[in-house]
Amino acid sequence: MLGDLLKLIPKGKENAIHGEELAAKMGISERGLRASVDMLRKSGTCIIADKSGYYRPGNTKELDAYIKRNSMRKLEALAKPQGKHAKEGASS
């Protein structure tokens, strides 16, 4: 199934496919699609999802933008207080 999904995700932002359409082609829910894309990403496949839809980088510019965006997300996550104790400390 993941291999079939990967074949349907095009290269290049200009060829992006919306989640609703991709899920319909796979015969799964959009939630199932997101879970499957997450599995592909965890296996090392670069899949970009933005307002254009889902796509794989078609050039280095798209790949660089994806890496930068995800690096910023990781840094932001590290900067946020985590867990129950962090919330308690924030309200004190």
Order of helical and strand elements: HHHEEHH
Low-confidence stretches: none
Distance between the termini: 49 Å
**In this structure, how is the largest beta sheet organized?**
2 strands, antiparallel
CATH superfamily: Winged helix-like DNA-binding domain superfamily/Winged helix DNA-binding domain
Shape: globular
| Strand adjacency order, main sheet | 1-2
- Please write the CATH class name: Mainly Alpha
State the secondary-structure class: mainly alpha
The number of strands is: 2
Main attributes?
single chain, 92 residues, mainly alpha, Arc Repressor Mutant, subunit A, two-stranded antiparallel sheet, 5 helices
Structure description:
The protein has helices at residues 2-8, 19-26, 30-42, 60-79, 83-91; strands at residues 48-50, 53-55. By secondary structure, the chain is mostly helical. It has one domain: Winged helix-like DNA-binding domain superfamily/Winged helix DNA-binding domain (Arc Repressor Mutant, subunit A), CATH 1.10.10. It starts with a helix and ends with a helix.
